[in-house]
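Example record

One chain of 238 residues, shown exactly as stored in the release files.
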Amino acid sequence: METDSKSGRLYVDIREAGYDAKTPVIRNIAFDVQAGELVGLIGPNGAGKSTTIKTILGLIKHLEGQVALGASGRYAYVPEQPVMYESFTLWEHLRLAASAFGIDEQTFTSRADSLLDKFRLAKVKHELPVTFSKGMQQKLMLIIGFILEPDIYIVDEPFIGLDPRATKDLLDLLAVERQRGAGILMSTHVLDTAERICDRFILLDQGSVMAEGTLPMIREQAECPSDATLFDCFHALT
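Predicted structure tokens for this chain:
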């Protein structure tokens, strides 16, 4: 992965990528994410969303193309499936993430306490997250990302497991981060929410881009009427 001050928050130009050179999984996927922009990565199961994200994160062995972050190279990845240490408390998970990014103690404590209150996890901060519900574990993953205040967020299916109140909290925090200048790439199946909050969309199918742009642009590419929803366009294209 490279850094490039001219590429906005994230620049992706994947000619092909896969787990080995003989069997590429995705092809011809190119897009960018600018400062303050939220871009939705949309597609049916098996369309290539996960492989695209793994390629951006540098986890795919074979890549022909380029992935570049903005000048600082700071990003946060929020996975669909929570990842945690069995013997670490919630607070210890947060402290570890802050230490890895060199966040000083005062800044860490202020951000952590504020986010724990926001997601209503303050009372369990010294408990083991492996005992939490899936929704609470997902909140932990989100808090870790927000503590870091990166230039780019890569968020995979963030709404799964979240109750309506936590979903609103997440949307509020994303709005604040966008105002700060962070770019957000979000993979999601929750198309009605994506339609409301995303600036642009990248629709994948069978490992390639089927359509991209704002909702009016997606409607035009899908040959859908001007009042068609993202859901309508999604099904017309896939």
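Notes: Strands lie at 2-3, 10-18, 26-33, 38-42, 62-69, 75-78, 152-156, 183-187, 200-205, 208-213.
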